[in-house]
């Protein structure tokens, strides 16, 4: 069971959050601040402890004794105590002495760092708080007239400027004059001060800061806020969508009963920075198409990440190239542990220094689970686009890991959507983007003109040995032997090998006993033009299916990797077309069954039997129908920017 620690200050927020944490099935360990927290929060806890505000070491000891490594801080604490109270332990005193600036951000970041030193990470509570965020617009029955609306717009603008300077987040205005601004005393004291000057009918604006760190500083309004507005004879409250409303229904009713307008402004804030991590070339390709759509909506967004040539073409700042990371299999990856350890250190440093709003992960679970964990520890939203194939593994271990690191999942298959939903994860399915990506790059006439080795009417056998060097190592020899055997059966066949860029192909075509053409460009044109394919298991099998290219799927890895996979995996097929259809649409030749003679015989029998050939094409069409939809890439980009 996941363990969550909660440091509870005053107000109802800790109580409501504790209920949400328990509703998610987590074990809850509460450290309540003496003189601030409401003792009722104990009702929802599995372990409850009162601690003085300045006793950080006591808090650390409690969390470590309970084996807690994820904590949240919510509720009010009078920050003036931090600069006047002398009853601090040595840890807090030492921390305060090192502060070069004593503003909120610097102070709270230092507190987070002290916990992190002990392996305890302050996390973003957003996954538990979604029900508390309001929609934009007027929430109350009373609508603002033109004068009030002018004050709402003015007050909101002034509050945003104030928050930009990290002074406060609340202003009180009337007739487009600022009456009070929040300082260290807090919202509930700033409002009466402004109301006294305005003598009623004031407008109160409360906003989030530009880079609000939701791990420990969440803007909140609730019944206490409404009571303060009533006493101050305020006529309206304006907040932004990053502000939580506690007891929302009661707050709205009480505001209605007292003729107070509550107006929620759309944040209208564009995401400024995204980090995208993909582990190999097919993920790099997927990412590039989504990046293109993201930039159409938000041209100014800065995107950094781990990727390859396709992401680089879209002006992504790469901190690592996937061509250096293309290992596959248990044994192969284990040999690169030190390389990945250094990469994770660089990723942590980047995330700390740049703090992107979103981290988007694509497949590559061995690497991306760790990157997601780092991002989660730093309070950054994590979206898994193209999640790892958790459904192939026996047991629930991988789904559990995903729940720990992910805020959202965007999947590529409808059956994945059902799996993640059943595990209470926020998941979206819009269709498979390859349907929009796999298109003929050129017209047939131009394609033939640029490839004079091929004539219209030729039967072309397409060879795809994979996009990783490991795949080439285990597949290339038998793919070439399969082609050789097939050539002996029908010398008129043309053989074209599609080489992925950044992959080494150690082939001397002059030494082969059949003519081989090697190409790197126009892969989707070749899919459409070819008669049949020998395709390495992976994304290429679905690209071929979308192109309606009959194929055989081949798969072979290190013997030990294959043996481990047999023990740990629970899957009937390795090829995506077969997995989607849940039946053998095209044959698979795996490990010891990957025999050139068998492959050549099957292909020859199929391409010389029109009925057998067309049955495969018809089945592939049905596979594609299962993953089609409209505006797939637009919807994926929109979800990431949401």
TrEMBL record:
GO terms for cellular component: membrane. Pfam families: LpxB, LpxI_C, LpxI_N. Residues 136-262 form the LpxI C-terminal domain. Its EC number is 2.4.1.182. It is an enzyme of class 2 (transferase). GO terms for molecular function: lipid-A-disaccharide synthase activity; phospholipid binding. It comes from Muiribacterium halophilum. Coiled coil: none annotated. Keywords: Glycosyltransferase, Lipid A biosynthesis, Lipid biosynthesis, Lipid metabolism, Transferase. This is Lipid-A-disaccharide synthase. The keyword Lipid biosynthesis applies. InterPro entries: Glyco_trans_19, LpxI_C, LpxI_C_sf, LpxI_N. GO terms for biological process: lipid A biosynthetic process. PANTHER family: LIPID-A-DISACCHARIDE SYNTHASE, LIPID-A-DISACCHARIDE SYNTHASE, MITOCHONDRIAL-RELATED. Residues 3-129 form the LpxI N-terminal domain. It catalyses: a lipid X + a UDP-2-N,3-O-bis[(3R)-3-hydroxyacyl]-alpha-D-glucosamine = a lipid A disaccharide + UDP + H(+). The lineage of its organism: Bacteria, Candidatus Muiribacteriota, Candidatus Muiribacteriia, Candidatus Muiribacteriales, Candidatus Muiribacteriaceae. Condensation of UDP-2,3-diacylglucosamine and 2,3-diacylglucosamine-1-phosphate to form lipid A disaccharide, a precursor of lipid A, a phosphorylated glycolipid that anchors the lipopolysaccharide to the outer membrane of the cell. It comes from the Bacteria.
């Amino acid at each position: 069971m996941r363990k969550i620690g909660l440091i509870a200050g005053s107000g109802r927020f800790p109580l409501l959050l504790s209920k949400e944490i328990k509703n998610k099935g987590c074990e809850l360990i509460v450290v309540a601040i003496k003189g601030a927290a409401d003792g009722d929060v104990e009702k929802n806890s599995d372990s409850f402890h009162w601690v003085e505000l300045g006793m950080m070491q006591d808090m650390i000891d409690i969390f470590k004794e309970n084996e807690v490594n994820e904590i949240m801080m919510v509720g009010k604490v009078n920050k003036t105590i931090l600069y006047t109270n002398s009853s601090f332990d040595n840890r807090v005193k030492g921390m305060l002495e090192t502060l070069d600036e004593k503003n909120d951000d610097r102070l709270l970041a230092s507190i987070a760092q002290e916990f992190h030193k002990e392996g305890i990470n302050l996390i973003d509570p957003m996954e538990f708080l979604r029900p508390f965020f309001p929609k934009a617009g007027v929430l109350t029955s009373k609508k603002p007239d033109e004068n009030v609306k002018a004050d709402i717009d003015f007050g909101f603008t002034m509050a945003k400027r104030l928050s930009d300077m990290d002074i406060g987040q609340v202003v009180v205005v009337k007739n487009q004059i600022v009456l009070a601004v929040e300082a260290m005393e807090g919202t509930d004291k700033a409002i009466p001060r402004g109301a006294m000057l305005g003598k009623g009918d004031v407008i109160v604006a409360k906003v989030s800061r530009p880079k609000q760190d939701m791990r420990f500083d969440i803007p909140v309004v609730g019944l206490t806020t409404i009571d303060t507005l009533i006493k101050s004879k305020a006529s309206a409250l304006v907040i932004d969508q990053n502000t939580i409303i506690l007891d929302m229904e009661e707050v709205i009713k009480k505001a209605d009963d007292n003729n107070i307008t509550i107006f929620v402004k759309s944040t209208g804030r564009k995401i400024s920075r995204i980090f995208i991590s993909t582990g190999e070339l097919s993920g790099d390709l997927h990412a590039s198409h989504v990046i293109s759509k993201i930039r159409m909506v938000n041209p100014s967004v800065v995107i950094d990440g781990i990727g390859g040539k396709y992401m680089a073409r879209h002006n992504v700042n790469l901190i690592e190239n996937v061509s250096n990371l293309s290992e596959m299999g248990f044994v192969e990856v284990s040999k690169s542990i030190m390389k990945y350890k250094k990469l994770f250190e660089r990723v942590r440093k980047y995330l700390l220094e740049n703090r992107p709003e979103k981290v988007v992960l694509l497949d590559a679970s061995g690497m991306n689970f760790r990157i997601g964990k780092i991002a989660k520890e730093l309070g950054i939203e994590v979206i898994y686009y193209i999640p790892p194939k958790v459904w192939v593994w026996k047991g629930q271990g991988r789904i559990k890991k995903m729940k720990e690191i992910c805020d959202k999942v965007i999947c590529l298959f409808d059956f994945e959507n059902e799996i993640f939903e059943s595990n209470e994860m926020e998941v979206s399915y819009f269709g498979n983007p390859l349907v929009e990506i796999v298109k003929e790059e050129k017209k047939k006439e131009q394609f033939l003109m640029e490839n004079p080795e091929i004539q219209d009417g030729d039967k072309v056998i397409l060879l795809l040995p994979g996009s990783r060097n490991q795949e080439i190592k285990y597949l290339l020899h038998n793919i070439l032997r399969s082609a050789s055997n097939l050539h002996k059966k029908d010398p008129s066949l043309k053989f074209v090998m599609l080489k992925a860029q950044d992959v080494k192909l150690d082939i001397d075509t002059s030494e082969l006993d059949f003519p081989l053409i090697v190409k790197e460009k126009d892969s989707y044109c070749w899919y459409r033009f070819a008669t049949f394919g020998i395709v390495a298991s992976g994304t290429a099998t679905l690209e071929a299916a979308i192109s309606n290219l009959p194929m055989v799927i081949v798969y072979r890895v290190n013997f030990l990797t294959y043996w481990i996979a047999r023990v740990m995996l629970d899957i009937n097929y390795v090829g995506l077309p077969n997995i989607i259809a849940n039946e053998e649409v095209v044959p698979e030749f795996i490990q010891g069954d990957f025999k050139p003679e068998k492959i050549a015989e099957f292909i020859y029998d199929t391409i010389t039997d029109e009925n057998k050939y067309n049955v495969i094409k018809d089945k592939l069409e049905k596979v594609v129908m299962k993953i089609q939809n409209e505006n797939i890439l637009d919807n994926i980009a929109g979800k990431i920017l949401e």
